[in-house]
Amino acid sequence: MKNFKNYFMSIAIIAMLFASCSKDETAGEPKVGDEVATISLGAVLNDFIRSQDVLKQSIPECSDDAPMYARVVLTHDLGEEDVIVPINFDGTTYFTDYDEDLEIPIPSGETTTAVSLTDFWVYAEEPDDMTMPIWMAPKEGSDYEDFVNDALPNNFDLRAGSKKYVDVEVLCFDDREVNLYGYQFFDLVPVPLMKFCLFGNFCLTEDGRHYVAGYTVNVWEGDEPVGDPIYTEVSNEVIEDEGTGDYYSDPLCFWLPDTAETDTYFFEITLNNTDEYTSEDAGEVILSGPITDEEIRMFYSQEDDSTMDYYHFNYGCGGDNPPPFDDPRVEAKRYKACLKNLGDANAVGFAYLKLEGNQLTATTAATELTMGDVPQHIHENASCGDYGNPIWSLDNADTSWPEADAMGNMFYTRTFSLTNAEVSALGDPEARTAVLHEADFTPVACGEFDEY
Fold it and tell me: What pLDDT, on a 0 to 100 scale, did the predictor assign at position 189?
């Protein structure tokens, strides 16, 4: 079981930029011959599915917009085509118009070439980088593959001199359910993305054994669950290993749009029963809250920005779960400060406060610190431009300071029981700042608390 301390080991900035449509032809063997063949693709919306009440509830509703363009991705013996082509309508069938990029070369000395149609999306307007499709052909292995007779890829041989017509079964598209069609999120949303993963344990009692948790996640863009989610009812799968009898699950991961601005995503985690346990809290939202892209970057390795730790929660096992997510059924006020470096220091991180009655839980995660003691306090003023004097020491129970490890990373959490006088002296945390220091009390990072 991973300790949350490891989740904040370092910061790394990731950017995943994905190119728009482009044609890629290969040179070299086999050589292009003089022969070609053309392809026309028919977009067939499955009328059988639309006529069945049960299945209509399982797949998205169709847009009233007429199909005008298709994006086609296919491979053949001499390369790959990734093209946008207009769609025609003959009164009965929609099909792709003639396009030179769908004129496929036949290898020299051959009469046929093997073709594989891998992607097929239909649009109501000529697409740019942000246009969403209205129809889509699902892929093999996806949740929607059983709703068509022939899920992609569609493999066939193309003969020289022929004009091949291929029907492609499509379903109506809902961008909230993008993962159900078998395409990667970044195939459809051409913006930089970042990955964030979850893993959970469940305990029937605080002193009981840990089970692999089953859970379902909804995700919204923004700091509140408003509007349509970008992920809806995504659940992990808890499986029994037939050889050992142990239950296991992979982390549940999400690709999130990451723009040049600070992005916020609201997560809602609901507990599920599994074959291994039954809980009276199943069906309840047990954790929720907003998390920013800056906080997610704390989960990535500074040495290797392709690796990351996951957010690990323990429900029913005693103690608080790591911020920024918390149990929405608990009456508490929660505050967060983004710690930014001061002077020539490089230190960065986050400080969190949770005030539940007279219980104050303080959590700090920071990196780029000097190894050793890290004195830290809540200061009297609201601005890092003038944070004023310390009014509360964020130290350990034995009055020692938390320490940064050899990599410059520090994780701290402690719950204080405050007297009424101390609650009054603390005042409104939104009028306070958190300040981290070197061992000699030189300030290295400061953050202004905001309620979230």
Answer: 53
